[in-house]
Amino acid sequence: MADPRVRLGWWLSSEEHDPRDLIEHAHTAEAIGFETAMISDHLRPWVTRTGHASFVWTTLGAIAQATDQIEVGTGVVAMVHRANPIMVAHAAATATVLFEGRFFLGVGTGERLNEQAFGRRWPPSGERRAQLSESIDIIRRLLAGDTVNHRGQYWRIENLDLATRPAIPPPLYVAASGPRSAAVAGEIGDGLIGVVADGHLIEVFRASGGKGKPRLAQLHVSLAATVDDAIDVAREWWPNGAIAPELLSELAQPRHFEAAARTAARDAIRSTVVCAADTAPIIEAIDKFVAAGFDTVYLHQIGPDQQRLADLASSDLLPHYHPNR
Which one of 85, 246, 301, 303 is CB 3.0 to 4.6 Å from 309, fit for a cystine? Predict the structure, then answer.
């Protein structure tokens, strides 16, 4: 039986698609009945094969004008070197106005891949969490309309208030891959974003102040005519999915991801990607996230064939989880 607690979302992959295609994908997702979408924010793609990494805020502005109802958020923005809380608050405020309240801000501790170009030291994870916490405080104050003067450990702001702001600030969700970041999400976030169906993360999140707050998840899928074809597509377009999680935030260049992926066995990709030719394995994976405590699951169809996910969602997945719509 379908679980009424789960909401399905569409993942917009900025690394795999031209920004004009992302706008069309968002429009398609809305047209077939998705209520929410999340878009990735990268300076560089993980591997050169995917070939894209457009500026997410420009794409968001275009999506706001191409859609009417679907909620869209970032997955996720990091404030290490590439972005700072002033820019993020400014951009998020404008996006929320353009979306007329249909926007949420997803933030995280970042990846070296997107920060190496600035030629500065890559901080360890604990330091990045502290920097993120300070950033979130600044963003909240700016979005609330405060005049901010701040002298912190990581950021300095002098006498700034935002002129263009939404009446209600957007929700701010924090990405978590481990218990420490899950605790941060519970303490200071409006919700959590995860990529693993790990019930312990949800327990930590709830115990740290996240009880009753949204829990969002990303699910990688590769849908094709056969399972073997799906594995081939995933290996071609998403080889980073076969790399050990401990390396993902530490590698600095696309060629490093490509080299690491070449050493992985062919089926290693299946540890992080649902490779399927029909609905059943995807429903099973979604239900694992629900059982772990997540309430929204964003489906990331790997590769250029986005229509296959749209067709399957329209015919099977959305009716399965939302039979009364």
Answer: 301
